[in-house]
Amino acid sequence: MMTLPNADPSAQSLARAGSTLPWPTRHARIILLLLSVTVVAVTAYGLTVIVRKGWSTVFASTDPVPARKVASPPTLASMESRVRTEHDLAHRVQAGVPSTFALIKGGAGERLILPPNSAGITEVIVELDPSGQTVWLAYGGEVTGKGTRGLPRGAVEQLVRDRPTVLVFTFSTPTMSRGVEWVLGMVEVSDSQESAADLFTTKWPDDWATRFRNEWISKSGSGPAAVPADAGGVTR
């Protein structure tokens, strides 16, 4: 066996032992140096991205997702001009049968002729927004949108303050037919203080839109009653 010149036996033994170690172990110092350089380079690049784009674009926000904004409301005149069909609800209400109608996405609205009621409202126009996620109601000189979180499954609408006239709408899931998307609607009319109080105290799901212009309470001694209060109601 060849011996190293001018080397003592212990040095030769260490050299032979070192040559048998795994490659990563023998070059540990070089590997650590390369890793250090890589870490520094990656960190510098990351800081450059943060400076250029800002923290908000690099890290996701933990804030809750805001509710979808309601589309711009149509005007009363435009809704009036787009009415497609009229539905007289008088006979249906007397028979206790809900009235049905179809809403075409972005299409003409439906005029609902109401039976005589304590609110004095004679008709309501219902229209489905071009987005297919907002239902517009027009009555008594105002337009109100239902569906800030998407197409509502239903809507409960008190028409006038201090009057118990309430409309209850239900809407089907959108249906596509011959390239046209539409929703089936159903409406019931309530015009008594007792039924209005029951509707107010009902726990409606989140996918329903509710608007009560008064706070309704139940009197344990004489039954439910409508009581005027400083409440603007909720429109969503």
Task: Characterise the protein shown here.
The chain is an alpha+beta fold and 236 residues long. Helices cover 28% and strands 28% of the residues. The chain has 7 helices and 13 strands. Strands 2, 7, 8, 9, 10 and 11 form a 6-stranded mixed beta sheet that branches. β5 and β6 form a beta hairpin. The N terminus and C terminus are likely disordered.
Helix content: 25-40%
Tell me the total number of β-strands: 13
Count of DSSP H/I helices: 7
Radius of gyration: 36 Å
Rounded mean pLDDT score: 75
By secondary-structure content and strand pairing, the structural class works out as alpha+beta
Label the overall shape. Answer: globular
Spatial gap, N to C terminus = 92 Å
How are helices and strands ordered from N to C?
HHHHHEHEEEEEEEEEHEEE
* Relative strand content: 25-35%
**Largest sheet features:** 6 strands, mixed
Low-confidence spans: 1-5, 53-61, 63-68, 218-236
Pick out its properties.
five-stranded mixed β-sheet; disordered N terminus; disordered C terminus
What is the topological layout?
Layout: H1 9-19, H2 23-26, H3 28-53, H4 55-58, H5 76-81, E1 85-88, H6 90-95, E2 99-104, E3 110-113, E4 123-128, E5 135-139, E6 142-146, E7 154-158, E8 166-171, E9 175-177, E10 180-190, H7 193-201, E11 208-211, E12 216-219, E13 223-226
Parallel strand pairs: 1-3, 7-11
Antiparallel strand pairs: 2-10, 3-4, 4-5, 5-6, 7-8, 8-10, 9-10, 12-13
